[in-house]
Amino acid sequence: MRSRDIKEYGLNIGYSKVGITSADSFTDYVAEVLSRGDKYDFFDFTSTNPLQGAIPKNIMPEAKSVIVLIYDYFQNDFPEELKKMIGKIYLARCYNPLPGMLAHSRLELMKDYLSANGCKVNSSIGIPARWAAAQAGVTTFGRNNFAYAGDTGSYIVISTIVVDMEFDYDKPTMESKCPPNCSACINACPTKAIYEPFKLNPKKCISFNNWITQDGRGSISSFIPYELREAIGGKIHGCDICQDVCPLNQKKLKAPKAVDRYIEQIAEDITLPAILNMTDDFFMNRIKPIMYNYIKDKRYFMRNAALAMGNSKNEDYVKDLEIAITNPDEMVREYVVWALGKIGGQYAERVLKSSLANESSDNVKQAINQALAQG
């Protein structure tokens, strides 16, 4: 089996680019991450910690090569109302895909192909994907910290497979093609998470606060800092702002695209009120197929929906928040209270005062008093 054979097979099953690089340690990546201090200390709780995956042979001693697969997830378009709330990569159902999804089957086909041709394969190592992709010559770096694959832009999923065979390796493209002095992504980021070109404070990133903020993750908890809540706006699962403003992505954004019929069919069901007060059936049939990438517990989707409702300042949401303020989950109630305080008005004030008398949690009581004080 030749490098060319692997690449042609990958293109045949739907990947847009395939590159191959050595499985030697990604020492420069490790040094770069460690230079960022505690901004990336949350890597410790991840099951595929890229600092560990950066040394593949510690996990798979016989590792020789990394196959890097690039998939263009923005081939179809999605309803505007959903893109305001959910990142396009999740609407495309191709990131950390569930079994039974096309993207999952595509990766399995590639693994089966490599295995059938004598390779031992491992796709569960947390290889630093964007770094590996540039080393494999299939992407460059963007100032917004995303990887770019030519005309496809940064709307890509990078998958990596470690194998125990050596191949011809591609010429690295450890470079950026961003326009000189461009700061579009930095200027557009609502939370100022991108603080310098090529440098991100993930703890300020909207996506991080959507789904990394979960209880039981070391120093990370479900608490979203007050100073970031308004800047998150209506985003409930991911954010594309820094990608959508990028000059390198404009050709891809403007290119004609077919409609994603599945998303189009279910779009009208996916509303903030439906998510806030979702049933288990709704979670299984509407949330899980799209947004089961990082969040496995519906309480965090409810939290995110409440935050988005508050930021909307839409008084029509008060009746839905009134239902949710009786949710047995203390965390959900706290964010519902915050949302009611942001929306304000007489109806919201009545709901808050009524709830105060029946609330058992000191934290939620404090949140209610803070919300009432805003009015």
From TrEMBL:
It holds the Pfam family Fer4_16. Keywords: 4Fe-4S, Iron, Iron-sulfur, Metal-binding. Residues 170-199 form the 4Fe-4S ferredoxin-type domain. It comes from the Bacteria. This is HEAT repeat domain-containing protein. It comes from Dehalobacterium formicoaceticum.
